[in-house]
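tool=predict chain=A
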Amino acid sequence: MSQGDKSKYTDKQKRKAEHIAGSYEARGVPENEAEARAWATVNKDDGGGKKPGGSGRGKATGHPAAHKGGESGGKASAGRTAAERSASARKAAATRKANAAARA
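tool=predict ok
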């Protein structure tokens, strides 16, 4: 399959890429970059095109890209004591209060 040829991708994969690209564009990523990232994500998720002759035909997907965000969450907090977490929470609350007062 030549670069840029999407004929081996299913309709579902094409819809997925379109949705992902739209999400990136909404966050200010340029259209070309958003499309490239979207197809990279679809490839990571599904292993390439699924139609006959495409890579990964008939294999299930574990949706690794869709779950990536959960890997890093909670590690910083888990390594701290309750007192440290509480102090951090108080500091964050004070910052939010100060920012709200500055805006008003």
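The chain has two domains: 8-56, 74-104. The mean pLDDT is 84.
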